[in-house]
Automatic annotation (TrEMBL):
Stretches assigned to the dUTPase-like domain: 39-130
Lineage of source species: Bacteria, Pseudomonadati, Pseudomonadota, Gammaproteobacteria, Enterobacterales
Listed Pfam families: dUTPase (PF00692)
Keyword Iron: no
Listed EC numbers: 3.6.1.23
Protein name per the record: Deoxyuridine 5'-triphosphate nucleotidohydrolase, partial
Length: 136
């Protein structure tokens, strides 16, 4: 069975990606996509009921208008720590001129800590095509 190829233009903005932080780390649950990691210099503490914008260290350009993308929280983090991703919606014609950042909202009563390189979300591509990264 031969799948079509989806080409993703991706720009690495943080030199730790692909060296210290493993990338791309494809999703293991049968979904097409990859994990997004926190590209921060030091750990960040998010107080209860606070929201923080976390860098992913990448810029992505996709020009296929027929594709949908979804940014989702990691289930274990969401359930255990009551962390909500502020942008878990379907994106169409996904084109970023700036770094992709993830909004994290701490809905718990405890301080939540994000460490450099930690998985913070997953980007799911709603397609049956094989993903090919074109580094720009």
């Amino acid at each position: 069975m031969c799948l079509d190829v989806l080409e993703l233009n991706i720009k690495i903005l943080d030199s730790r990606i692909g060296t210290i932080f493993f990338f791309p780390e494809y999703l293991s649950d049968g979904l097409l996509g990859f994990y997004l990691r926190a590209c921060i210099k030091k750990k960040i503490y998010i107080s209860p009921e606070q929201t923080t914008l976390i860098s992913t260290g990448i810029l992505i350009n996709i020009f296929d208008k027929n594709l949908d993308f979804l940014i989702k929280p990691l289930y274990k983090v969401k359930k255990k720590y009551k962390i909500i991703i502020g942008n878990p919606f379907i994106l169409k014609n996904f084109f970023y001129n700036n770094e992709l950042k993830i909004s994290i909202w701490n809905c718990s009563k405890k301080i939540f800590c994000v460490y450099p390189g930690e998985r913070i979300a997953k980007l799911i591509i709603l397609t049956k095509k094989k993903i090919k990264f074109l580094y720009i």
